[in-house]
Every structure is written in structure tokens, then in C-alpha cells.
């Protein structure tokens, strides 16, 4: 069965403040969707609520992956069901090497007794690191500790490549990347593009979309998707900004949940 | 049921026991004086831990031990600690020595590695000038008690310029709570020698459930230019109280490295101190601890600088589970005249439950201007953001926490240069963290 990811009427709040006010979105395997929008409109909240960040509370709606309701699951179960979130601010975990972490994550998807062999794992990891032009020493560094912003983002993409998810959410993966790193990250994403995998790219710049061509572009404001279109929509936003969208929809303040 | 006295020995019985074991007169006298002192002086008073509430009197009585015919006669908990193929091993069972072995090669170089009781008889000239010199018998009731009662024990002597490549190992265990288990470990590394000593102190939990006390003293003498690496993992049973004082006196350009794993299941008082007497003397201390259930611990590291350009580094990391509590003290003392000395210390506690308690007390006492010193301390719980991040990659909550805990201890464990200690420590850590 082809991958099908359906978000239906999703509402979520943080510390009692409603941020997502009913998100509807459907992503099929093979599709790349981009969510764009100014800061403070709820884009990253959507990513965190889907993954199950403890600070966000979903109050209404559902998010199903191939018919299974992700929101009923614990964070680790969502990941094993096939959801992957490349985070905007990945945590640093002192004392845990990147390779130990990656191997634990791979083995978490395998039955006890059929863990990946060390040699096979190292071969896979080193292969992907090479594709991402990562220094091999990053395998032995403590997870994200002392990594630059760009290194952290590359490390997120490395995890995505090794974990082979069905639905990938990239939350501002382009922030803090120089143009070379942006190209490398985009190549990594493009290499993972296939009929079984869907992508949701969250960004407020068009520049990433020069490297990864989306099938659908959505604009988010006030905690809702207010406009959807094809790649030409991203282009127009890049050229003209967001004001015309606000004007068209009669929106004065596009943000949500700001004090 | 034996009567528990506030002071579990007296001059008469200490001297009588010493004589019955054929100990030299100087030692009989030392034990007698110590026994008398033990009746008059107080228990040590560590910060914020009231050890007088612990059961400190269950020191038991001397039980003569018979040497084992082979290592396979020892309990499995002991056998699995023996480093494979080791030729240098001492095993203490309760009150006495059960096994001792030294390679012909080391013996030929003049290395002495035997139990301390034997050493007092056969090497008085080396033992007497050092025994109870780094730790004085009249410091407190604990030191007096050890002086009066110590049994079995370990003596290491490494002659000038001799380098001992492989670690000397000892295993000290009890399988009878009624027997006095009070080792004294004495290491003398002569000028420009090098030696690594590792031990494990364990309980055969299948045989011990009633209260016992392990009053233990370690003295290390590092002569000029010598290097002593001392690794020790304590993993005694829940019904026990471990009180262990370790102290090194380091002379010019000497170096001591302590690696301590305080992994007992019972209450623990652990105090590890380096006295840097000589110019250019250095000390490195690493302490790892895990507490569980209602365990109470007082973990202290101390560095005292007398020597010019002396250097010390102390690290303690502890993980506290359940309602366990640990008071962690780091004391760096730089005496007047110890110019260019440098002392650094770090204490970190990770608490895994809201009932666990951890206190880190870094103390710098500096009586000299021309020095450098630093300290860092932190106490905290597992960060939920980190757990979320790991879980978002499919790792279960319990595995995520396990990774974070191991990660917390790893920077210290991975730095342990003595492989035998690292392996033992990792195994016993794993056991305690899982348990």
C-alpha cells in the first residue's frame, strides 16, 4: 500500500494557548509538500505536535499514517511507525557517541536477536556520511555536542537516511546553513525521494525550494493553512513576500499565540 | 544475638588477638593503643550525613580463614572478578587471606605483593615506617577501629626504578556477616617506580543478609618520581556499611591516580585524599557512584597541596535513583608556600527520581596567592528534551534514559586508562543501573 499521511482538523496548544487551529493536510508517498509562512504562525508547532513533544497538547483532530492514528502513540512509537522529524534545534547528548546513538535507533526498529551487525552498520553509516560530506570523526563525537548549526542539520539528515522513514518532516532544516551545506542537505533529501516516502518541508525561505522542488506549497498563518498551490506559489512568495496573501484574505496580524 | 557495644573492641582483646596471630610486638602495641582510643574518640563527621544513625557497631568478630586450595573453591561472585590469566592476585575472605600469588618474575625484581599480616611479620622494616603514617590511628573512631581490628589486607612494595607492567589485583569479599571484615591496604612505591593496583570489594549476597561494617583504610606512599595507579570498585551488599578512607602522600614529581567506583548497595562513607608533599607532585581522582533505594552516601575527594607546582584534578559523578542520597564534597586545599600549584575539581550529580537527593559541595581553601584553582558543580535531573529527542528516533523511554545515564558517566569511565578497572567498573555499573 502506498504511504498515506492524513492530518485532519488538528488543534494543539502550548501552556493553554491554542496555536494550531485546525490543520488539514494529506501527503501521499512520493509527494513533497512545503509549508511556508512568516515566523510565529504555527509552522514549527505543527512539526512538534505531530512528533509528540511533551510541551504541546493536541486538543482535537487526528494524524494518521497508513490508517494508524499517530496521536494515540508515544513519541518512540510514532518514530517506529515511520514518522521522522528533522528538528530545528536538535538536543545535545553528552557522553553518547553519534554512532552508539544511531545504532540504538536502528536496532529499536528490529526484533531482539536480529540487531544490525556492527560491520554492516558501520558500512552504512560511513557510506551516508560520505554522501553528506561529513567528517568521519563525527561518528565518534558525542551526539550534537559542540556541533555547529550546519553540522547538526547534516546530522539530522544522516539520521533520516539511516532510519528510512515513510514520512519526513523537515523543520527549518535550511536555517543556519551556508549555500554549500544547503546543497548537500538538499541532495540528501532528493536522494531519499521515492514513491513510498512523503515529505513535509517547513521553511520561511524559498531558497531551499530552489534545490528541492515541491509538488505542493501551503501558506500558514494564524495557525491555519490559508492558501495552497503548486511550486509557482513559492516563487511568487519569494518575489512579492506575504503581504499580498494577507491582503487577499483580509489578515492584519498573521501570527498566533503571541503575547 | 551478640551484644552491640558502642565500641566493639578493647585493649585487652585487641592485644590478645594480635598475640594469638603471632604479630610483632610493635603491632601488638599499636593495636592495643588504637583499641583504647576507639573507646574515647568520635566517629568522623562528614558534611550533612549523620553516619551515627547508621549501624556502625556490627564489626563482628575475628574468624580465622583457611586458604583456598584453588580459585574454583571461591564463590562465583569472586571468580568472575579474577582477571584472566593473572599471576598476581590476593583474595581476602572475611577476616583473612584466602589466596595469594605473585609471579616469579616480579618477585625476582624485588616486588612484594602479599597480605599485610604476612608483611608485618616478614617485612617489618618496610611496613612499620609506613603503617598508619598517612592515616593516623587517632584521627577518629574509624581510623582507631581499623588500627585495632584490621585483618588480612594487602601490602605492595615496588623497589626503586622497577616498573610493574601488569596490574596487581586483589579481591576482598565477605560471605559471613558475623566475621570482622576490616582490610588495610598499604602501598609503597619507591623512587621512580611504577605500579598499578586494582581491587574489588564485594559481598557474596547469597550468604550475607545481616548487618556488617567494613571499616577500611588505604595508605599509598609515592616516593620521588614514582607513579601509582590505584583502581578500586566497591560493590558490597545492602546490609553493609562501607567506610573507606584512602590517602596518598606524594613526594617530588610523584603521581597518584585514583579511580574509585562506589557501587555498594548499602550506606557508604568514602573519602579519598591526596597529599602533595613534594614539588611537582600530581594527583588525579575519578569517582563514579550509583545510588539506589534508600541508600545514603558521603563521597569526598580531597587534594592538599604543599609542594610547589603541584597539580590536582578531582572528578566525581554520581547517579542517584529512587530515594538515594549523596553528599559529594570536593576539597582543594593549597597551603602557604605551594606556589604555582593548580587544583581543579568537578562534582556532578544526576538524579533519576524526584525523591533522590544529591548535594555537591565544592570547597577551595587557598593560603597562597600565586596559584590557580577551579571548580564546577552541578546537580540536576534527566533533561526531558533529551529524552524526547532520543525517543523521536524510535528509542524507547527506558533505553533513552539508559543512554543518557551512561552518557553522563561515560566521559569519566572512558578516560580510565587501566583496562581491567574499566571493564569491572562497567560491568558492575551496568548491574547496578539495571537492578
Automatic annotation (TrEMBL), chain A:
Which InterPro entries does the UniProt record give? AAA+_ATPase, ABC_transporter-like_ATP-bd, ABC_transporter-like_CS, FeS-cluster_ATPase_SufC, P-loop_NTPase
Q: Does the UniProt entry include the keyword Transmembrane helix?
A: no
Has keyword Nucleotide-binding?
A: yes
Which ranges carry the ABC transporter domain? Answer: 4-247
Single GO MF descriptor: ATP binding
Pfam families attached here?
ABC_tran
Q: Which UniProt keywords apply?
A: ATP-binding, Nucleotide-binding
Q: Report the sequence similarity comment from the record.
A: Belongs to the ABC transporter superfamily. Ycf16 family.
Q: What is this protein called?
A: ABC transporter ATP-binding protein
Amino acid at each position: 500500500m502506498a504511504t498515506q499521511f492524513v492530518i485532519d482538523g488538528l488543534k494543539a496548544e502550548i501552556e493553554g494557548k491554542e496555536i494550531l487551529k485546525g490543520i488539514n493536510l494529506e501527503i501521499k508517498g512520493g509527494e513533497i509538500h512545503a509549508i511556508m509562512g512568516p515566523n510565529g504562525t504555527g509552522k514549527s508547532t505543527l512539526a512538534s505536535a505531530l512528533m509528540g513533544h511533551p510541551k504541546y497538547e493536541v486538543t482535537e483532530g487526528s494524524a494518521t499514517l497508513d490508517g494508524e492514528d499517530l496521536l494515540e502513540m508515544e513519541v518512540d512509537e510514532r518514530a517506529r511507525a515511520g514518522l521522522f522529524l528533522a528538528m530545528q534545534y536538535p538536543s545535545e547528548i553528552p557522553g553518547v557517541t553519534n554512532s552508539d546513538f544511531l545504532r540504538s535507533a536502528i536496532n529499536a526498529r528490529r526484533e531482539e536477536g536480529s540487531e544490525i551487525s556492527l560491520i554492516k552498520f558501520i558500512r552504512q553509516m560511513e557510506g551516508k556520511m560520505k554522501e553528506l560530506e561529513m567528517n568521519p570523526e563525527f561518528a565518534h563525537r558525542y551526539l550534537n555536542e559542540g556541533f555547529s548549526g550546519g553540522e547538526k542539520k547534516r546530522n539530522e539528515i544522516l539520521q533520516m537516511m539511516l532510519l528510512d522513514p515513510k514520512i519526513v518532516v523537515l523543520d527549518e532544516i535550511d536555517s543556519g546553513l551556508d549555500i554549500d551545506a544547503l546543497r548537500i542537505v538538499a541532495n540528501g533529501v532528493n536522494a531519499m525521494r521515492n514513491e513510498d516516502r512523503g515529505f513535509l518541508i517547513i521553511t520561511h525561505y524559498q531558497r531551499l525550494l530552489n534545490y528541492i522542488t515541491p509538488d505542493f506549497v501551503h501558506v500558514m498563518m494564524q495557525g491555519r493553512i490559508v492558501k495552497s498551490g503548486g511550486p509557482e506559489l513559492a516563487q511568487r512568495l519569494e518575489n512579492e513576500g506575504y503581504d499580498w496573501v494577507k491582503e487577499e484574505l483580509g489578515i492584519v496580524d498573521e501570527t498566533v499565540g503571541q503575547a | 544475638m551478640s551484644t552491640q557495644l558502642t565500641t566493639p573492641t578493647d585493649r585487652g582483646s585487641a592485644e590478645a588477638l594480635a598475640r594469638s596471630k603471632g604479630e610483632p610486638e610493635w603491632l601488638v602495641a599499636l593495636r592495643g593503643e588504637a583499641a583504647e582510643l576507639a573507646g574515647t574518640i568520635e566517629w568522623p563527621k562528614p558534611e550533612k550525613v549523620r553516619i551515627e544513625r547508621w549501624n556502625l557497631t556490627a564489626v563482628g568478630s575475628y574468624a580465622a580463614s583457611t586458604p583456598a586450595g584453588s580459585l574454583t573453591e571461591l564463590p562465583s561472585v569472586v571468580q568472575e572478578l579474577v582477571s584472566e590469566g593473572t599471576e598476581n592476585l590476593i583474595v581476602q575472605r572475611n577476616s583473612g587471606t584466602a589466596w595469594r600469588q605473585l609471579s616469579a618474575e616480579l618477585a625476582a625484581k624485588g616486588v612484594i605483593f602479599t597480605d599485610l599480616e604476612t608483611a608485618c611479620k616478614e617485612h617489618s622494616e618496610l611496613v612499620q615506617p609506613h603503617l598508619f603514617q598517612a592515616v593516623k590511628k587517632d584521627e577518629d573512631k574509624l581510623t582507631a577501629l581499623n588500627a585495632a581490628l584490621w585483618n588480612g589486607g594487602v601490602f605492595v612494595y615496588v623497589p626503586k626504578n622497577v616498573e610493574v607492567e601488569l596490574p596487581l589485583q586483589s579481591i576482598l569479599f565477605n560471605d559471613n556477616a558475623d566475621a570482622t571484615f576490616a582490610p588495610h591496604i598499604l602501598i609503597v612505591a619507591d623512587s621512580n617506580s611504577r605500579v598499578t593496583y586494582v581491587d574489588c570489594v564485594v559481598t557474596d549476597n547469597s550468604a550475607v543478609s545481616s548487618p556488617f561494617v567494613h571499616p577500611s583504610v588505604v595508605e599509598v606512599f609515592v616516593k620521588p618520581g614514582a607513579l601509582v595507579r590505584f583502581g578500586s570498585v566497591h560493590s558490597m551488599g545492602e546490609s553493609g556499611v562501607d567506610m573507606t578512607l584512602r590517602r596518598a602522600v606524594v613526594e617530588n614529581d610523584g603521581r597518584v591516580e585514583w579511580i574509585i567506583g562506589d557501587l555498594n548497595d548499602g550506606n557508604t562513607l568514602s573519602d579519598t585524599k591526596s597529599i602533595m608533599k613534594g614539588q611537582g607532585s600530581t594527583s588525579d581522582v575519578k569517582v563514579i557512584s550509583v545510588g539506589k533505594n534508600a541508600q545514603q552516601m558521603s563521597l569526598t575527594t580531597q587534594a592538599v597541596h604543599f609542594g610547589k607546582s603541584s597539580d590536582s584534578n578531582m572528578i566525581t559523578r554520581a547517579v542517584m535513583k529512587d530515594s538515594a542520597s549523596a553528599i559529594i564534597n570536593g576539597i582543594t586545599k593549597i597551603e602557604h608556600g605551594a606556589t604555582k600549584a593548580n587544583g581543579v575539581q568537578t562534582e556532578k550529580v544526576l538524579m533519576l527520581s524526584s525523591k533522590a537527593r544529591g548535594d555537591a559541595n565544592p570547597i577551595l581553601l587557598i593560603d597562597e596567592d600565586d596559584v590557580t584553582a577551579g571548580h564546577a558543580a552541578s546537580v540536576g535531573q534527566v533533561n526531558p528534551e533529551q529524552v524526547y529527542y532520543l525517543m523521536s528516533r524510535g528509542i524507547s523511554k527506558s533505553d533513552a534514559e539508559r543512554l543518557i545515564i551512561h552518557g553522563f558517566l561515560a566521559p569519566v569511565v572512558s578516560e580510565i586508562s587501566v583496562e581491567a578497572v574499566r571493564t569491572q567498573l562497567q560491568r558492575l555499573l551496568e548491574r547496578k543501573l539495571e537492578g
